[in-house]
Task: structure prediction
Amino acid sequence: MLPQQETALETCQHVHTILREVEQAVLLPGTDMLAQWETELGQAAALLEGMHESMKKVGGAQLSNTTGDSATLRALQEIRRASATLQAKFEHGSNYCMGLLQLRLGTGYSEHGLPVLMPTAARGTFEG
Result:
């Protein structure tokens, strides 16, 4: 966690750096990276939550039109754009993996439109 004296703008810049690093790492995904991304994104969420809580304590999360607050507002907007892009990449990857599983193990669709996967031989031996 970062020191308490960090400004809102510095917090936003730190969070944006985390998002950029994760976005670059997504280009070469691997199962070992998932835990690291979870930790880094959790840290970013905690930083933003802490900033939000401190803003509520000093009179609300509304930013005035001062120069510093204007820069913070722009930084928050950039975080929103970066996180939306990252979310789309994660969803695309997840859908891709589900599609591969369905092609390999799928037997059709349920009445609710969800893919139905056939049981594997390993599952049958443990349950049987």
Q: What stands out?
A: The first helix runs from residue 8 to 25. The chain has a mean pLDDT of 80. Helices lie at 8-25, 31-57, 67-105, 121-127.
